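hey can u check if this looks right to u? its 587 residues, i copy pasted from the old doc so theres a chance i mangled smth
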Amino acid sequence: MSSITLLVVGILAFVTGYRLYSRFIAQRIYRLDPDFKTPAHQFEDGVDYVPTNRHVLFGHHFTSVAGAAPIVGPAIAVIWGWLPAFLWVVVGTVVAGAVHDLGTLWLSVRHKGQSIGAIAESIVGSRARILFLLIIFFLLLLVNAVFAVVIANLFMANPGAVLPVWGTLVIAVAVGFLIYRAGAGILAPSLGALLAIYVLIWLGQYLPFELPDFFGFAASVGQLNAAGGDASVAAEAATTDGVRTGWVIILFVYGFFASVLPVWILLQPRDYINSHQLFVALGIIFLGILITNPQVIAPAINRNLPADAPSWFPLLFITIACGAISGFHGLVASGTSAKQLSNETEARYVGYGGALGEGAVALTSILATTAGFAVYAGIDGWHEHYATWASASSGATTAFVMGIGELARGIGIPSQVAVIFAAVVVISFAATTMDTGIRLQRYIITELASVYGIKAMSNRWVATLVAVTSCAALALGLDRGAGGMRLWPLFGTTNQLTAALSLLVITLFLVRLGRSVWITVIPMTFLFFMTTWAMVLNLLRYWSESQALLLAVGGAVFVLELWLIFEAAVALRVLLRRAQTAVADPR
């Protein structure tokens, strides 16, 4: 199979979806109004509510939702073959994910920039708010914990990426002040920032940084036994755990400060710069494919699955947790983007367009791992990399980074620089997702605290401290981060469940407005079926493996899901009765 064929088919599907389907939805279903006063103008405060240029907001929204998940998920899912992953990414993005993202952004704008959890109260009922907020809390807990472990592992595997990633922070702050305080415009600072980042990427190969083991983890008796009594192997494993722990702690300390700063200082300019980085990365990948046309030598459907690999049905739809549809997108749309949208009609560009952008990232992940990496490692090396479910999960980013390196080498970029570039792209987007995720979790904690009258949590510093502490505890709670990727199936299931619940709230709002609901009901029903099935399978596995922490988190989310669905069914029944009464008595 030609990689160019898959690329062209995928891009044409995305372009067609935006030009036709999104226009229909925006005009006929959501009915975006250019004269509607958005929350960014209504509540402008210079911190969270900030009317923002649509291109800057697209950059923030796109990079916040397009974190590491649309790379990691597809890079794992190709273990079942490239065809199921490709179909779900392309079709799911156009008819489900983008509809969800545009819908949650529009819904939040119409409800004063409230989060989807708070909106659930006014549409479903008072208990729904608490239930939804708790589900969102668990989702953000998983998102931030998983991405912290992913970033830490990438820093350890790619020390040349450390300098450009952290250097980007300084560049972003400078860009923020140039744009918002010096009035320097957008284009020149952005291009200058991009050039500076590439200089740092080039320098990274000569100035690699490896974090010392500050914690000095020693080889315990348990580690010696696990290593078969080999003290050197056990000591190396302990050192790795110590370095990973150090990176996770550093990342959450950074996330604490990044999430409490005004969005214009770091969040917006960094996301805007990273969006340019991603466009360049996509351009390099697409150009590499067009010039070299590597064959997709990985199987379309893998009929020689390893013994520990679960069935693709329903696990495919939660393993690719972003890139097709994602509940986290709704949290970004209703948590930060809705507070920055200057004109309601721009929701189509930001929401639907941002989802398609992430779909394109997921598509490149499939091509990088089934063509680029497969060419780099050979078909035998590909099968060796995907020999077990555990190795596919833990090595997903490695397959992507090496695949990008192979494609970039084909257009004349030195492999070492290309690998650092690919690692910086993955780390940067995972980090921006963490930034936004911690900020959103602060919002959720504050909302929950207001319900129960806990005044201390109204302070953003205290709420953020609770957020980063709980996330760090989960990230390090599974073998000091070494088992962090065991969170991925639970993260994916909770993420897709949240998307289904968001679609449920949008559907009820459309029913209230008397509008057509089929565009949300179809993907909602599909997701509820798949996520419920997947959650049951996850819980059974956690029970059999005695994984108490994952069983507790997953069980709590499952109970909250069933309760919220019941509340929504009651609310729908009330809405339908009112509609019937209005028809029977037109007075």
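The chain has one domain: 3-207+243-584.
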